[in-house]
Write a sequence for this structure.
């Protein structure tokens, strides 16, 4: 571990930094050329010309590395997390970081320009494949379309009585009604709306503790393959992810001095998350509890957090009681998922349980589509150690989601919830810091 | 100079930042083009069947159960028809029995589609009243592709759409038992014989009449490999890539009153890639008018006995063939690659309904 300090010091020397940056620039130029060829081929317009073989050779060489990338990235991120927690002590980095040397007014305008650009890029990338297709994209989209049609027929209560994500379904239904579009047309724009929401919420979250990196994180979120995968047909997950970032952002803003109105607002947010995606609600609480448990004055902090979470916990308990009193098929909403643990059945053929969880690296493969983001995320972890509450939150969050992403049953959703764009934004911001 | 260096340094950094974003956009763009695609849509015929159901019974009709058994078709049926869609095997639904194969399927999508569909039927009280006659159970032919035993529980309802017949509970259970036997043994000929009248198309005395169209094929009459008849036909043929090699039995058949054609097959092959067995019923001498059915299932070539039955009405036609005037029956092997096919055929039959 003691060798790490001289290495980091060496990396800080101006000449070496220049050399490294130049190498990075060359590598990125090659990558852009190679990817451009791949992308052009995907669209059915292969590149031709004098230097056409250079990108294809790059792609061919790159493809040799691709199979091991997920493992490499996983090892790098886990290594960076461990280094962040156990590495040699350093001064608190986040509080030392000042913003870029810009006039305040220009800085603010630039931040919003970056945010708007990120939103525009996310909207375009998510809308783009839909503009090429006439049929709905993604398998679950067909299911969500049916759900909206069912609410239309059965009424709003269907979402509460028969689904465990009532707020999400009611919001989707409400948006469809407000839009005035047919269900099939509405599901062309819903992912775009959710992509805009997710990008803006990342910006909101990061700006609550490091405004200078918020734009970078938003841009990397907008261009991340995790956002693209979520946009295909994981709409409930998409919606809940935005709420997750918003809630974390609010908590960080309100945490130090939380007045009654702020506490009430947070309590409402937790209820909304619970009624949108209870798994994400659980994640929020576990991450915040974990981060608070590692903070100073932890007992007071945890007590305050539990007070904030109490209404949503009570609501979950209420729904579980309802599911026990009125078991399926009478009531099949939130709480029914837990009824199994109380010996109740949720299918017409009795309790159905599967013990198929296994160690699985497939979903971590999501990291491989864009190796730049994990590399920047590693930089973010190395530069920002878990000595402040926001970074501690991100460390706990990343660790939990990385573990869950290795389990077959939760792999996909957990891999999508690893806050790589946030960490990458921090890494990129630090890399570009000229002081 | 320092200022210049710092400026150049800054330009380099900004360029790197921009390139990082460009690379990310490219990766995401490529990801979208490759993966953000519609869920495998059904065939055009399958979509037409769903449209027919929607046009005739309305969208979201809670008195209609549409039956499919493909996870993709399930989602498309939900989107097109709405209401009650059963994912699974028809006879399990009719007999109101749990299909443990689907319930414990290792494919998560199959399992969740099955559980999701029966949960929905349960919620609406359908499973309780499945025998009440309150529900119209529809099977889109192309999407479901019912086999000959399942056809015993179905009647035509519309363009390529079938409807479940009213059967008494004992008949349903028996049919489900026969179907399970057929599925587990790969033999549809024997279980079907309980439901239809079977006629032999060629007795053993006629088997020496089978001839090949090429010299690289040997055809001989051999011992039976099932107890259904006393003899079989043993064929060994070398098929070159892209060719189809036939064995032919000439004769005269009137199949106008028949509904099914069946036979036993036992074979192996050294061919790799795509290959198929063709059954051709020639209506003339020159391959101008004929009926043809292809069997692409590679598991037929696993060396085990398979009892195969197909509906004559589902044969493809070429020209203007006439079932009342069939002049030759031909089995052909097509292979995309070179390969040797060693197979035996037995008990070539036709069958028709008894009711």
């Amino acid at each position: 571990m003691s060798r790490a300090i001289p290495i980091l010091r060496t990396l800080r020397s101006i000449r070496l930094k220049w050399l490294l940056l130049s190498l990075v620039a060359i590598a990125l130029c090659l990558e852009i050329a190679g990817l451009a060829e791949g992308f052009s081929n995907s669209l059915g317009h292969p590149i031709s010309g004098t230097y056409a073989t250079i990108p294809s050779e790059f792609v061919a060489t790159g493809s040799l590395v691709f199979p091991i990338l997920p493992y490499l990235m996983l090892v790098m991120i886990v290594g960076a997390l461990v280094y962040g927690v156990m590495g040699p002590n350093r001064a608190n980095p986040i509080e030392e970081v000042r913003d870029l040397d810009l006039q305040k007014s220009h800085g603010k305008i630039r931040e919003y320009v970056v945010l708007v650009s990120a939103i525009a890029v996310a909207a375009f990338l998510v809308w783009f494949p839909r503009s090429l297709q006439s049929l709905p994209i993604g398998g679950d989209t067909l299911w969500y379309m049916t759900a909206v049609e069912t609410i239309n027929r059965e009424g709003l209560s269907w979402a509460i009585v028969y689904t465990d994500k009532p707020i999400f379904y009611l919001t989707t239904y409400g948006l469809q009604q407000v839009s005035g579009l047919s269900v099939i047309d509405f599901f062309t724009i819903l992912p775009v709306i959710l992509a805009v929401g997710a990008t803006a919420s990342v910006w909101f979250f990061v700006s609550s503790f490091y405004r200078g990196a918020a734009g970078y994180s938003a841009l990397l979120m907008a261009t991340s393959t995790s956002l693209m995968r979520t946009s295909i047909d994981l709409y409930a997950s998409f919606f809940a992810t935005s709420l997750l970032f918003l809630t974390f952002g609010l908590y960080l803003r309100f945490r130090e001095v939380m007045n009654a109105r702020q506490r009430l607002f947070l309590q409402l947010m937790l209820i909304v998350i619970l009624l949108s995606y209870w798994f994400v609600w659980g994640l929020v609480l576990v991450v915040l509890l974990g981060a608070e448990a590692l903070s100073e004055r932890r007992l007071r902090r945890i007590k305050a957090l539990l007070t904030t979470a109490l209404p949503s916990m009570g609501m979950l308990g209420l729904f579980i009681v309802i599911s026990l009193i009125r078991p399926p098929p009478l009531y099949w909403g939130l709480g029914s998922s837990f009824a199994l643990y109380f010996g109740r059945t949720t299918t017409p053929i009795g309790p159905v349980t599967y013990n198929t969880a296994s160690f699985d690296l497939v979903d971590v493969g999501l990291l491989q589509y864009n190796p730049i983001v994990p590399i920047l995320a590693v930089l973010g972890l190395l530069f920002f150690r878990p000595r402040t509450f926001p970074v501690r939150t991100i460390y706990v969050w990343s660790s939990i989601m990385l573990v869950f992403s290795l389990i077959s049953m939760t792999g996909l959703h957990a891999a999508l919830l690893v806050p790589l764009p946030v960490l990458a934004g921090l890494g990129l911001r630090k890399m570009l810091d000229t002081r | 100079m320092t200022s210049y260096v710092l400026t150049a340094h800054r330009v380099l950094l900004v360029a790197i930042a921009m390139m990082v974003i460009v690379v990310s956009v490219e990766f995401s763009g490529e990801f979208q083009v490759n993966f953000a695609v519609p869920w495998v849509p059904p065939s055009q015929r399958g979509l037409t069947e769903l449209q027919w159901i929607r046009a005739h019974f309305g969208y979201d009709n809670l008195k209609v159960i549409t039956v499919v058994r493909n996870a993709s078709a399930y989602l498309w049926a939900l989107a097109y028809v709405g209401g009650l869609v059963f994912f699974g095997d028809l006879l399990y639904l009719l007999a109101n029995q749990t299909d443990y194969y689907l319930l414990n399927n290792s494919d998560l999508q199959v399992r969740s589609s099955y559980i999701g569909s029966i949960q929905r039927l349960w919620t609406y009280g359908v499973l309780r009243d499945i025998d009440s006659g309150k529900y119209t159970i529809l099977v889109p032919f192309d999407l479901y592709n019912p086999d000959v035993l399942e056809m015993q529980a179905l009647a035509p309802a519309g363009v390529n759409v079938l409807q479940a017949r009213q059967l008494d509970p004992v008949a349903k259970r028996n049919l489900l038992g026969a179907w399970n036997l057929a599925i587990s043994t790969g033999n549809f000929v024997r279980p079907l014989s309980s439901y239809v009248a079977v006629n032999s198309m060629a007795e053993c005395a006629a088997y020496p009449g089978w001839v090949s169209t090429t010299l690289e094929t040997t055809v001989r009459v051999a011992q039976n490999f099932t107890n259904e008849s006393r003899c079989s036909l043993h064929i060994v043929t070398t098929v070159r890539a892209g060719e189809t090699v036939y064995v032919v039995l000439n004769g005269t058949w009137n199949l106008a009153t028949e509904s099914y054609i069946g036979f036993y097959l036992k074979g192996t092959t050294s061919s790799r890639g795509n290959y198929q067995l063709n059954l051709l019923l020639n209506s003339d001498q020159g391959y101008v008018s004929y009926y043809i059915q292809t069997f692409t299932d590679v598991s037929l070539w696993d060396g085990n006995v398979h009892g195969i039955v197909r509906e004559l009405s589902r044969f493809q036609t070429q020209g203007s063939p006439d079932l009342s005037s069939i002049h030759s029956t031909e089995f052909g092997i097509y292979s995309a690659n070179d390969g040797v096919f060693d197979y035996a055929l037995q008990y070539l039959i036709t069958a028709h309904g008894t009711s």
Notes: The radius of gyration of chain B is 27 Å. The mean pLDDT of chain B is 89. Chain B touches chain A through 51 residues (CB under 8 Å). Chain B has two domains: 44-185, 198-353.
